[in-house]
Amino acid sequence: MKQTLKVNCEKEYLIEISDNSFEKLNQEINEATKGQKRLFVISKKVYKLYYTRLNFSEDEVFVLNDGEKEKNYKNYLKIIERAQQIGLSRKDVMIAIGGGVVGDITGFAASTYMRGIDFIQVPTTLLSAVDSSVGGKTAIDLADAKNIIGTFYQPKVVFININFLATLDKKQFLSGLGEVLKYAFIEESCGHTHPLYLFEFLTLGCEKIMQKEPLTMIRMIEYCLSLKIAVVNQDEKEGGLRKVLNFGHTLGHALETITKYNKFTHGEAVVYGMYFIIKWAYNHEYVGYTYYRLSMELLEKYGFKPLKKKFPKEKLIELMMKDKKASEGKITFIIPCDKKKVKEIKLTPVEAGYMFDE
Questions:
Q1: Nearest-10 crossing angle of helices 170-186, 289-301
Q2: pLDDT given for residue 10 in this prediction
Q3: What pLDDT is recorded for position 238?
Q4: Helix, strand, or coil here: 9?
Q5: Torsion of the alpha carbons at 176, 182, 183 and 188, rounded to the nearest 10
Q6: CA-CA distance, 9 to 16, in Å (whole number)?
Q7: Which end of the chain has the lower number of beta carbons within 10 A, N or C?
Q8: Would you state the pLDDT for residue 55?
Q9: How far apart are CA 121 and CA 118, in angstroms?
Q10: What distance in Å separates the CA atoms of residue 253 and residue 273, rounded to the nearest whole number?
Q11: Mean pLDDT per 10-residue segment, the chain (358 residues)
């Protein structure tokens, strides 16, 4: 089965979601890169699991170690140097095969090498399939600030093959589900042309999703990306609407940073951020009890629980103030304001501090 979606921002491109064989994936990549020199940036884990089946030339490959800490300027320069070493020109292409870290750093390298060359995304995790592989955000991190150096740079095409998910461990699969669940809470704020009923789909389809049933997975990814595309088409460079995609991320990014990316996956951190802001919104009467309970039950249905460990609120606030969405001395939060709807609020550090005392 294959579903094709189209992004209609400044640069149009296709997203293909399928359960095709890896041989077919190879053919699709070869067709998309015909006449171009290629540099494949591949996650070390994916390289070990799939290199023989992907059948790329060793001369074309740069293997990137796994983990958020690898998304740094030293590895960025290594990718650039490798591209120069194999003779990539302005007419050539970089291809990211891996999770969000690989996609982000490869996209950034492609956007800056010779002032921009073609870039193809092949996400291999659920998280990158429903989030970072689409929309054109590229980035590398500093030690205390995630995604602080980056560009908006759309890919040439995105190939999502759900067969990669077969070897995804439970922790990483749940991380992806954290971002999937986010879309359920923001659906009606995305400006999609018609209802997708993702909240209901996730509620009723939990068993098949946890079993990674192929048709269910393709449909779920299609729903999530349809919502993201609706947002990106209207606000490619996060001037306003695109901020709704950051639901749960303000605290989530701070939790990732304060634990040096070693304790929580990105999706876990986002879920903790959603629990936190949904409860705050209920306490301040932005949402009613019925929706609050339905929200809690949906998160719990997938095995998530609120964060129990306490972190110094002063440090969390300091980190949230460094978030790229913070402005004018205030922290930006995306909060639920009705069923499947969210909105932006800005709080001073003092006001944000009170959130942790409730």
A1: 160
A2: 82
A3: 81
A4: coil
A5: 180
A6: 17
A7: C
A8: 84
A9: 10
A10: 9
A11: 91 95 95 97 96 90 94 97 97 97 97 97 97 93 87 96 95 97 97 95 97 97 97 88 94 94 94 97 96 97 94 95 87 96 95 89
Beta pairing partners, 158: 15, 121
Q: For residue 226, what are the β-bridge partners?
A: none
Any idea what DSSP says for residue 131?
T
Phi, psi of 35 (to 5 degrees): 80, 5
In the chain, the amino acid numbered 158 is: V
- pLDDT at position 143, please? 82
Per DSSP, 41 falls in state: E
Return the pLDDT at 357.
85
CA 118: distance to chain centroid?
20
Residues in the chain: 358
Q: How many helices (H) and strands (E) does the chain have?
A: 14, 11
| Gap between the Cα atoms of 302 and 206, Å rounded | 7
Position 55, amino acid: N
Q: Could you give the CA distance from residue 272 to residue 315 in angstroms, rounded to a whole number?
A: 17
Burial 221-259 (b: 16+ CB within 10 A, else e): bbbbbbbbbbbbbebbebeebbbbbbbbbbbbbbbbbbe
Q: Which two tokens stand for residue 160?
A: 């999502």
Q: What angle do CA 274, 275, 276 make, to 5 degrees?
A: 90
Tokens of 335: 């909060």
Of 124, 128, 46, 113, the C-alpha closest to 79 is 113
Opening angle at CA 229, ends 224 and 231, nearest 5: 100
- Per DSSP, the three-state class of 234 is helix
Measured in whole angstroms, the distance separating CA 181 from the mean position of its chain's CA atoms is 12
Strand order in the sheet with 2-8: 2-8, 12-18, 157-161, 118-123, 93-98, 38-43, 61-64
Radius of gyration of the chain (CA): 20
